[in-house]
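pipeline: protein-struct stage 2 | run 1193 | ComF family protein
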Amino acid sequence: MRPHRLALSAEALAALDDAWAVGFYGGALGTLIRDLKYRGRRGVLPYIHAALAAAKLPEQFLVADLAVYVPLHEAREKERGFNQAELIFAEWLKAKVIPVRPLLTRMRSTVPQYGLGEKERRKNVRGAFSLSEAGKGGAGEIAGKSIVLLDDILTTGATLTSCAAVLKKAGAGSVYALALASDRS
């Protein structure tokens, strides 16, 4: 597994300070993610956690002030029974002593990004995220902070960019995206 920096579009760079993936989506890592996300197989988590623990990530991910999971819409999380980003990263964050805050909410359900092109992905998530009640109440907690935004997969960066824009508008000093996997370099 080789962590790698992801090239970002000009739009993404306006909201994200950097974006990395722990590994590539193809092969075993993609299978692990699909088994967890779509089949609910939590037995794959020790393998995912081992990959994260072994990853040599840049300093900004290790010294962040806060971490935020990309939120699912409440209906999707209820259907699935979990937020995969939380299951993937919770143990790693605990080991790194980075506090997690539920600062974002997904205001509306979106169609799954899988299979959509880049423009369709951006349109799909535009305006889908806002500060949660905790985020609105904790504006001082966001202001000037370094935040790691976590998701399972980064393809075009549309979801992470949309989330990061909300955090930046609320005053975050920097927002770094970290995905378990990406299908691009």
